[in-house]
């Protein structure tokens, strides 16, 4: 082992091979529920150094856990407890390599922080539209590897739609330069799309060519209230038709979710009375002018009022007011849930048309088995993506709720599955959902995934135990179908 560490130190500067308590920040997940151990945490400076690390890990048969900002929510960047893995931190690969204004692309290294990429695009007079609560710390490599979503997916798509090319270090330690800035390229299998969303299990992404968009001239934001979830779904269609590509956000929040903010984060004003069961933060981005945006917004929302779809509205009159509305969703909601004692989280998607039925049947199923639990539902309605979190009964405790965690997950995920949905909309599988995945995927799909894994990583060294259990190809672990 000493030889291995010495060779790693020779490959990188010794200061970037961490083997002691310096490394602890890299070994615990975002929720602080999982802590692993590692032989070393290495911090290469460029793609060549990443390739050398991978070749050394291959030589010594050491598992590799790629890590970006470590903001992922599924424990996918946390090593297991064996202490045999090398955590490969990409954060020093953070250069913007090129901006091509005519092609509307930006080429950036994988460890660049998302907010820095947004800023670089803005300085070039363009928009890089991925937007997440963790954008101050998550990295482009992590965004790609989890196929991150966020608040503007309904207009611009998730990370898969925002990337044109990749540079990847393979499990053999070879460098694949696929940094093509092409919007059309039908030359065989789409390797890029396989790496996106693979959570570090198929290769190490070292750089990417990303799509840029025109900066909007104006944004118009409002918090709208709805008398029932069906009205919110109906208004989504109305807003899509009325705003077209200008509809850039439609963030749903239940009255329970906003009620938690009112109770636990009183310093955060809520501009509407909590007298409706559902609310949505809606944003229109306009390419012409403030005035144009306002007129379009008022026409569509005004008509929805007349039609009885919207029951109340608070329209931001200025940038600070718009930012205050966004703080409700981006900061206050998370804070309120924590102060309420935490909850059991689900990141799920169902077809938008089935959301009302999903919400009703899931709540009924939960109440029949766990009376008094409080669903805190919010999410990206335009993508059919709900964060369906379950809080403890008012006469109970968080500890008693968490004792039922697996059973609650099963009720919610079974309902998602029954409604044609997915048990992971945007956060991935990692280690947290790995063992429940076989319950909801067919054996054919799992078998194909195992075969892909073996083809890309025959020695099984890339982030083992994430997404798929380390079962032999052709023998995926399965539990009975629901
Ligand atoms: P990490 O957490 O470091 O890693 C995540 C996965 O990617 C791991 O499997 C890791 O091995 C792999 N990986 C990282 N870098 C590489 C690389 N270069 N090559 C290969 N594999 C790599 N997610 C959403 O989708 N939408 C949201 O709205 C959203 N909001 C969030 C809000 C908050 C407050 C927080 C804390 C998280 C949120 N997330 C959200 C989850 C998380 O921020 C994203 O998944 C993010 O994309 C992870 O990036 P990261 O750099 O932190 O990756």
**What's the helix count?**
16
**Domain unit count:** 5
Task: Please report the total strand number as a whole number.
Answer: 18
- The amount of beta strand, in percent, is 15-25%
Mean pLDDT: 94
How is this structure best described in words?
This protein has 482 residues and is α+β, with helices and mostly antiparallel strands. The protein has helices at residues 2-11, 47-59, 114-123, 140-145, 153-156, 159-162, 191-195, 229-243, 255-264, 290-306, 319-339, 355-369, 398-402, 405-418, 437-440, 443-456, and strands at 17-18, 40-42, 64-67, 86-89, 96-100, 105-109, 126-127, 163-169, 175-178, 204-211, 213-214, 218-226, 247-254, 278-286, 312-315, 347-349, 374-380, 385-391. The protein is globular and about 75 Å long. The structure holds flavin-adenine dinucleotide. Flavin-adenine dinucleotide (FAD) binds at residues 30, 65-73, 76-77, 90, 110, 132-134, 138-139, 141-143, 145-146, 148-150, 199-200, 204-205, 426-427, 463, 466. Flavin-adenine dinucleotide binds next to strand 3, helix 4 and strand 10.
Give a quick set of tags describing it.
482 residues, alpha+beta, Uridine Diphospho-n-acetylenolpyruvylglucosamine Reductase, domain 2, Uridine Diphospho-n-acetylenolpyruvylglucosamine Reductase, domain 3, Alpha-Beta Plaits, 5 domains, seven-stranded antiparallel beta sheet, five-stranded antiparallel beta sheet, 16 helices, 35% helix, disordered C terminus, binds flavin-adenine dinucleotide
